[in-house]
């Protein structure tokens, strides 16, 4: 697969940020605010819908491990953006989804039921 050089740079920036956080170096010397290098990162996941809260605009998914962002399998509640995504799936369905990872404030931006 051919990689765009700017995508590769963003991926390397994200890896360096993760390494700094794991080494205890924290965010020293890194940019902050709206221009964080990982702000546009997306990841693909597969899981089972455990709950949908249309009032809060959230979906709870028990997802498999997501290696691209180093997340183990777990159950998490995500914001849905747009909220209309919540109408396309049901509790108990296996789904594939796209998310913008941001720790506990991660957002699902696409979701589709899987057979």
**Can you count the helices?**
1
Biggest pleated sheet? 5 strands, mixed, barrel
Name given to the CATH architecture of the largest domain: Beta Barrel
Content of β-strand: 25-35%
The level of helicity is 10-25%
Instruction: Output the strand order for the largest sheet.
Output: 1-2-3-5-4
What does this entry look like structurally?
With 115 residues, the protein is of the alpha+beta class. The chain has two domains: 5-35, no CATH class; 43-113, OB fold (Dihydrolipoamide Acetyltransferase, E2P). It contains one helix and five strands; from the N terminus they run αβββββ. The protein has one helix spanning 5-22; strands spanning 43-53, 58-63, 74-80, 94-100, 107-113. It has a five-stranded mixed barrel. Strand 1 (43-53) and strand 2 (58-63) form a beta hairpin. The radius of gyration is 16 Å and the shape is globular. The chain starts with a helix and ends with a strand. Residues 1-10 and 16-37 have low confidence and may be disordered.
């Amino acid at each position: 697969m051919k990689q765009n050089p700017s995508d590769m740079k963003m991926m390397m920036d994200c890896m360096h940020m993760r390494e700094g956080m794991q080494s205890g170096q924290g965010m020293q010397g890194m940019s902050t605010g709206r221009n964080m290098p990982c702000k546009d990162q997306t990841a693909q996941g597969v899981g089972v819908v455990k709950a949908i809260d249309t009032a809060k605009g959230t979906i709870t998914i028990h997802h498999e491990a997501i290696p691209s962002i180093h997340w183990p399998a777990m159950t998490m509640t995500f914001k849905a953006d747009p909220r209309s995504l919540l109408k396309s799936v049901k509790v108990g369905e296996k789904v594939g989804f796209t998310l913008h990872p941001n720790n506990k404030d991660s957002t699902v931006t696409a979701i589709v039921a899987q057979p």
